[in-house]
Amino acid sequence: MTAERVNPPELSPPAGFSHAVVATGSRVVFLAGQTALDVDGKVVGETLPLQFERALTNLLTALRAAGGEPADLARVTVYATDVADYRIHAPELGRIWRRLAGRDYPAMAVIGATRLWDEQALVELDGFAVLA
């Protein structure tokens, strides 16, 4: 895939995301929402950062199984049950993202959710990638 990250100077400088991603490739991978589920289907991690790390790991595991890499991500949506808590932990979440997925940021959004499918889940990530 080739991806052009577009961050116009007329918009606020992005931090941890890209305003737009122009992706070209031959396959699109749609990634289902991933929470902090372990292989037994149980939510692990008591804190937002711990759950975010596991949810992102799960998302990247699905992506790699489909033949992609983190740089192939064109769009990721984060659903958080507490956006204020997400903002407080944003620097730590950014470090987790960079360690696991690098600095080729997709277009992203964070959306507040009353609750997620698993009641114990604090965060869920979904998205899509474009592969060469």
In a few lines, what is going on in this structure?
This protein has 132 residues and is α+β, with helices and mostly antiparallel strands. 27% of the residues lie in helices and 31% in strands.
Describe this structure in words.
- With 132 residues, the chain is an alpha+beta fold.
- It contains three helices and six strands; from the N terminus they run βββαβααββ.
- The protein has helices at 48-65, 83-88, 90-101, and strands at residues 2-6, 20-24, 27-34, 73-80, 107-112, 123-131.
- A four-stranded mixed β-sheet has the order 3-6-4-5. Strands 1-2 form a two-stranded antiparallel sheet.
- Helix 1 packs parallel to helix 3.
Features:
two-stranded antiparallel ribbon, alpha+beta
- Broad shape: globular
Secondary structure: helix percent: 25-40%
Helix/strand order: EEEHEHHEE
Strand content: 25-35%
Radius of gyration: 14 Å
Number of strands: 6
Structure annotation, total helices: 3
Main sheet makeup: 4 strands, mixed
Low-confidence stretches: none
N-end to C-end Cα span: 4 Å
What's the pLDDT, averaged over the residues?
96
SS class: alpha+beta
Strand order of the largest sheet: 3-6-4-5
